[in-house]
Amino acid sequence: MKTKKYVLLIFSIILFSCCESDELPNKQSNLQSGVVITFDDDFVDEWFEVNTVLQPYDWKATFFVTRFNQLSADKIQKLKDLKSYGHEIGGHGLNHLNALTFISTNETSEYLNQEIFPMQTLMDSNDLSTTSFAYPYGARNSTTDNLLLNEFQIIRGTTYGNSNPSSQNCFYNYNQLVFGLGIDKNYSHFSIPYFLSLLEYAKNNNKIVIFYAHKPVTTFQNDYETEYQTLIEICNYVKSNNMKFYKISELYHLQNSI
What we know:
The structure is a single chain. About 45% of the residues lie in helices and about 20% in strands. It is built from nine helices and ten strands. Strands 1, 2, 3, 4, 5, 6, 7 and 10 form an eight-stranded parallel β-sheet that branches. Helix 2 (about 45-55) packs parallel to helix 3 and helix 7 packs parallel to helix 8 (about 230-240). The longest helix is centred in the first third of the chain and has 21 residues, at about 1-20. The chain is globular.
C-alpha cells in the first residue's frame, strides 16, 4: 500500500512539473507593452517643436536623421537637445540613397563608403553616435540587412496596410530587423482608430508596436506629414493605459536580456 502511495506521489509530481513547463510564458508574456515612435529624414525644427507639444505625455521617440552634412549648427544643437531630453538619434543615410538601387549598379563597399561611413563619422564627431539605422524608402533585402547589421545593432524597414492586428508586421519580434508602420496622413492605410487598435492589441498581448512618421505638422498639406492630432492620440493612449514609450535601441537590449 505504501509503495502504491509512493508511486502515485512521484507520478503526481512529474505530471505537475510537465504541466508547469508547458505553461511557461513565452518571450513576450512578461514584456511591458508599448510603442516605438520613429521619425525619418531631416525635419529637425519640426521634431523639436512637436517635442514641446508631446512632453506632457513623457513621450520618447527615435529620430532617424539624413543629410547630416547639410544640417546647420542650430539644427545639430537641437538634435543634441532632443537626445538630452531622453530621445534617440538614429542614422538614415548620409545622402538618403535607395540601398537597393545603388547597390544594383555599385559595389556594397561603395554604398558603405558613400552612405554609411561618412554619416557615422559626422555623427560621432558631434556626440551623436548611433547604433540604429532606418532604410530610406524602406528599400532593403537580405544582402543589405547582413551588410548593415555589421554596422548597427538594429535596423528598421517599413510595412504598410491595415491587416488584422494579429497578422500585422509592425510588432517587435525579438529580431535585429524590425518594421515600422507609417502614420503619415497620405498613406492609404491611414486611420487613427486603426493605429489605436494596434496599440490595444499590443496592450492585451504584451507586445510593442512600431510606428514611423516624417514631418510633424499642425495641419496636413503635403505627403509625408503627420498631424499633431495623430501623435497626441497615440501618446495619450500609451500614457492612459500604462504602456511604455521605447526607443528603438532598447529593443536590441531587450533581445539580449533574454
